[in-house]
Amino acid sequence: MSEIERIRSLDDEIFEEFQEYFPKIATSNFIEQYPKTYYIIQMLDTSSTFIKNSLLDSCESDDYYGAKILYRCQIEHFMRFKYVFFNWSHKNNDDFAKHYLEYCDAREVIDSLRSQVSEQQLYDPTFKIMDWDVLLQKHPSFRNKTRREVENETQKYTFKHIVHFLNSHLKTDGSGTTQFLGKFIAEYSNLSSFVHGGTKSYQEILSMQSDEDRHSEYGRICGLSFQMSTTLKLFSLLMYVQTDKEKFGTHYLNVNAIFKRV
Known about the structure:
With 262 residues, the protein is mainly alpha-helical. The protein has one domain (3-94, 160-260). The chain has helices at 3-25, 29-33, 35-60, 64-91, 95-121, 132-136, 147-153, 159-169, 179-196, 199-207, 211-243, 245-260. The longest helix has 33 residues, at 211-243. The radius of gyration is 21 Å and the shape is globular. The relative contact order is 0.16.
């Protein structure tokens, strides 16, 4: 059995467990007490699962470039989940999630309008929005918010800030950086070359002419992607257990046992 086949087998076991506990969430105390937090973690869990599945498919079809792009996406989803989990576990309320959703939605409105302005400027270089705040107040996401406030506030949700935040709260070694953060930060940075068409990505592909080297790398990133995706489910269950121990306690132990077999 190849490494990817072994990971798929473990992943199938995780999915079977997920099918058992997912229907219970709708009637849980957790979703009643923390609906916005649930929305975010389920959104990240679902998308992380899709990314992991696509990455496994890419590795099996020898799509090195696509696999690397997906792996970078997986790292960011993992970090964002850790950020949400940390804030929820320390504040024990739905306020952070509410704030996160409101401001991220508002930021996407700004980014969308900015892209429309750039498109218009291709035809009319002098075009500009005279008063952003007046325009934005018409949008429900900007109730009592200004453009500057949204842009400043959403800096808290950038990947760079998330890394600094987690690093400052999860220090475990003398260098001031946790082992997992140090590893993923470096990989995330290097993988940007694949996303943006940088020359280093092509140099790496050219260095992977050997089937053995590529398959070794596929096994590594598939294993890590599986671990990140499963961690989202494991920590989600840990959250559910806080309000519904009888419903989710056994499922948490089962997922944890599978996870340890990696």
